[in-house]
Amino acid sequence: xDERYVGGLWCHQVLEHLDTYVEGELSPALLAxxxxxxxxxxxxxxxxxxxxSLVAELSSQRAPDLRSDQLERxxxxxxxxx
Amino acid sequence: xxxxxxEDRLLRLAAAGxxxxxxxxVAAMAPAVWRVLCRLTASESVAEDAxxxxxxxxxxxxxxxxxxxxxxxWLFGLARRQAARTWxxxxxxxxxxxxxxxxxxxxxxxxxxxxxxxxxxxxxxxxVAVATLSDRDRxxxxxxxxxxxxxxxxxxxxxxDPGTVRVRRHRARLKLLGALRAEVCDG
Lengths: 82, 187
Known about the structure:
The structure holds 2 protein chains of 2 kinds. By secondary structure, chain A is mostly helical.
């Protein structure tokens, strides 16, 4: 990875703040610096997009609901073993 | 004084041997425990076994619950430990990387992250990749990213600093990208 210094930040500093950047939790000053960096640094922009895509996909996943037969088997097991 | 949540009242009664109260506790908590276990174990059949063991353990351990943690946190702790036991039987602990930079390089930082973005949009592959993470990494991804629990809430459950949860989440996400990339590289 060829580190670049853009917008007052090195690539590794952008990486360090990527989590809070994607979560929208950066301070205004740091947010502006990261945005300036990403606007000029293709590597960070692409990696940030992949990271954000992962976070979005994770949040869109949903576990299956518990079915009534699974709950019945649980209650049966508890009746047997307690 | 804040009234106790219903599940705390039920667990307190169960701790005194009230089986009906425990059944009500099970009915109230099973759907949430199920969702967490499905994600922690990445398998419905394993999750069902783990759920049964979790509630059996909860009945036996209820008298030891002192109410320092909420009934919900206490039960999720049992579920997490049960999932970890199940998991350790299936795979060893995956290798770890040390620095954020190393994690990011393994995740495709500076190379070709577009393929990763596409791969993370494949639900099955994404869940398989989650399943390869260590207990600690999987826990933070499951609770924060899949369940939508705020870092501050998970920090309270685990009795650690919210900043620590955020750092763990960031590292775990990078490891997850790394696991997806490994799959890309493996074809």
